[in-house]
């Protein structure tokens, strides 16, 4: 038996290089640490220059309060910081506070810091692969310049893990854009060699207005003009920012920028909450663009759970999730009746076609009426409320959504519209023009409603629009009456991986609200006694395992909620006005009025737009009138 090696203390240089692997993984991480140091120094201007994607040069210059010549060498010592005394690690009001960034960078690169305080002399200090030089006099205006050359020359193996120069440059630009959004009162610039990649001047005014102005420079004018404004407060949590309109979605989540107390983060809880809020309005696999700022007491969030400080942990995650979901859904509901302009639709058709069928003929729709297929037991009764026989509707009245339930009536093929109430169309016309969706003028191809507004026209997809109306009605009915449960004759026993059963059992009360009754049946085993009646003959074992695999969503039973909403969406699709169904003016106007009263009516359940607006000026340009 061999003798085990003795325990020994690693040399400081080795310790620093190991620590650098946690904090400094790529050039963008260096830029992040240095730019955040500049912000902590109350800089009003931050200029960043890189070369070769940051491999050969990173230079960050600021006009902050600077570092005294006496403190320069201490700044390159591990766990030395001016931003906390360590007495309360939750009372953090700055970016960097661990004292790791500068010594970590100096251990793997050639680092120089030149700094001057307003009433002091400038000095420079160098550190090459952990070898520290003495501070020396230098010329420099008030502020600090940190220059990093030959990143990872001391640990060349890490260079193999870097991506292409273009990818590393884009990562650096993303860091600067995120910081610029959170701090609009600071001017930022990013230069790659001689090429300017980003420039934003300092904005004035209050923080909310300044952030909106900065939004144009970072996210573009189109997003800034169409984005929904978010401003919600609950239980000491304050959420502000901007979010995608119902018709503005992206292929990836790269346009989601989330901040906690001004700190850019990539937090699964926040991203998941946003995804849940948009589940009803976006096609599957599409993502919103977001710029959200969450402010709360520092003692309610731990920012010290990751060396790079990109992740946080909330004391009350359910409250945070509830605020985000509620604020986003309210904003979507309030904007839901607003028809998007034609240029805001973009390539929406190709984006959603694969998820919900070709545009113009929504999935499940057909030209002419087809009876809907059988539905799962328990939901058919709820759906009958929205499939009543056709009723007389007044054009000048605001028809209740349920009165538009003519989906199952046979379509008529007369060439003339049904008789109108005496004088209703002419008398109500002027007032209806001022409503968001105007007054119906015609139906074309027995699929689309042409509506006139005071300053333009709107084209409405009758099936997609009514599908949303029925869906929202069904959700409302579920919320008021609760989810009906069905008792299993023989409880189903489900075995789960170690620890998964405890996660589910901790959410027993929440799951019961959605019709799922479970109890413990021994170690790592759950007994399922009741399931949601809406799901019919559900694969109980698969349902339980799916929930157990996504514990982060169990706080509001999001995973089960999605399944229930999917059933509602399916029923709504089959219970809605079909493409190919001819409507008279009363029916068309009743549909428009219901859309104006219904949340999220700008899109159907599959994420397709229900209407498109064309302004009078755009029409005139089409015909060369202006």
In what range is the share of β-strand residues? 15-25%
Residue-averaged pLDDT: 77
Distance between the termini: 93 Å
CATH architecture of the largest domain: 2-Layer Sandwich
User: What structural class do you assign from the helix and strand content?
Assistant: alpha+beta
Major sheet description: 9 strands, mixed
Radius of gyration: 30 Å
Number of domains: 4
User: Helical segment tally?
Assistant: 20
What's the CATH H-level homologous superfamily of the largest domain?
Histidine kinase-like ATPase, C-terminal domain
Give the proportion of residues in helices.
Answer: 25-40%
Plain-language structure description:
This protein has four domains: 12-195, Histidine kinase-like ATPase, C-terminal domain (Heat Shock Protein 90), CATH 3.30.565.10; 220-335, 2-Layer Sandwich (Ribosomal Protein S5, domain 2), CATH 3.30.230.10; 343-475 and 576-622, MutL, C-terminal domain, dimerisation subdomain (formyl-coa transferase, domain 3); 483-557 and 567-571, MutL, C-terminal domain, regulatory subdomain (Ribosomal Protein S8, Chain: A, domain 1, 2-Layer Sandwich), CATH 3.30.1370.100. It is α+β, with helices and mostly antiparallel strands. Mean pLDDT is 77; it is low at 346-425 and 551-557. 33% of the residues lie in helices and 20% in strands.
């Amino acid at each position: 038996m061999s003798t085990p090696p003795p325990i020994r203390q690693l040399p400081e240089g080795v310790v620093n290089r190991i620590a650098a692997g946690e904090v400094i993984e790529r050039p963008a991480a260096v830029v992040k640490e240095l730019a955040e140091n500049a912000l902590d120094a109350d800089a009003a201007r931050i200029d960043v220059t890189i070369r070769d994607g940051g491999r050969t040069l990173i230079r960050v210059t600021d006009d902050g309060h600077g570092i005294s010549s006496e403190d320069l060498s201490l700044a390159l010592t591990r766990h030395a910081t001016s931003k906390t005394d360590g007495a309360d690690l939750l009372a953090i009001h700055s970016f960097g506070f661990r004292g790791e960034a500068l010594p970590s960078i100096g251990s793997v690169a050639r680092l120089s810091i030149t700094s001057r305080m307003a009433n002091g002399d400038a000095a420079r200090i160098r550190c090459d692969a952990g070898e520290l030089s003495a501070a020396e006099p230098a010329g420099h205006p008030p502020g600090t310049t940190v220059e990093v050359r030959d990143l990872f020359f001391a640990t060349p193996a890490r260079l193999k893990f870097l991506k292409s120069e273009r990818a590393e440059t884009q990562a650096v630009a993303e860091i600067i854009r995120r910081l610029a959004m959170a701090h609009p009162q600071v001017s930022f610039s990013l230069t790659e060699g001689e090429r300017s990649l980003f420039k934003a001047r300092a904005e004035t005014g209050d923080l909310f207005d300044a952030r909106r102005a900065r939004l144009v420079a970072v996210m573009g004018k189109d997003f800034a003009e169409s984005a929904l404004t978010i401003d919600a407060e609950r239980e000491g949590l304050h959420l502000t920012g901007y979010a995608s309109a119902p018709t503005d979605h992206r292929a990836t989540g790269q346009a989601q920028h989330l901040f906690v107390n001004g700190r850019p983060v990539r937090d699964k809880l926040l991203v998941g909450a946003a995804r849940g809020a948009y589940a009803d309005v976006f096609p599957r696999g599409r993502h919103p663009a977001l710029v959200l700022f969450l402010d709360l007491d520092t003692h309610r969030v731990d920012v010290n759970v990751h060396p790079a400080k990109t992740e946080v942990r909330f004391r009350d995650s359910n409250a945070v999730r509830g605020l985000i979901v509620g604020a986003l859904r309210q904003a979507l509901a309030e904007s839901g009746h607003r028809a998007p302009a034609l240029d805001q639709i973009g390539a929406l058709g190709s984006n959603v076609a694969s998820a919900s069928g070709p545009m113009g003929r929504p999935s499940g729709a057909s030209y002419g009426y087809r009876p809907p297929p059988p539905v799962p037991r328990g939901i058919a009764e709820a759906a009958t409320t929205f499939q009543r026989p056709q009723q007389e509707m007044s054009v000048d009245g605001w028809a209740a959504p349920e009165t538009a339930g003519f989906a199952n009536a046979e379509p008529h093929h007369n060439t003339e519209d049904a008789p109108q109430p005496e004088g209703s169309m002419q008398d109500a016309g002027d007032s209806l023009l001022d409503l968001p969706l105007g007054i119906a003028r015609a139906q074309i191809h027995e699929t689309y409603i042409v509506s006139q507004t005071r300053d333009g026209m709107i084209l409405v997809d009758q099936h997609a629009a009514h599908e949303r109306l029925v869906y929202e009605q069904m959700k409302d009915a579920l919320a008021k009456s609760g989810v009906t449960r069905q008792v299993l004759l023989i409880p189903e026993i489900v075995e789960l991986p170690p620890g998964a059963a405890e996660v589910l059992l901790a959410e027993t009360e929440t799951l019961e609200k959605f019709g799922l009754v479970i109890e413990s049946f021994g170690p790592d085993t759950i007994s399922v006694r009741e399931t949601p009646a809406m799901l019919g003959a559900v694969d109980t074992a698969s349902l339980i395992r799916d929930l157990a695999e996504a514990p982060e969503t169990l706080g509001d039973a999001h995973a089960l909620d999605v399944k229930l909403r999917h059933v509602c969406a399916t029923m709504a699709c089959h219970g809605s006005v079909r493409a190919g169904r001819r409507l008279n003016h009363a029916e068309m106007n009743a549909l428009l009025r219901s859309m104006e009263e219904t949340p999220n009516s700008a899109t159907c359940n599959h994420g397709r737009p229900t209407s498109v607006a064309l302004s009078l000026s755009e029409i005139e340009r089409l015909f060369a009138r202006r």
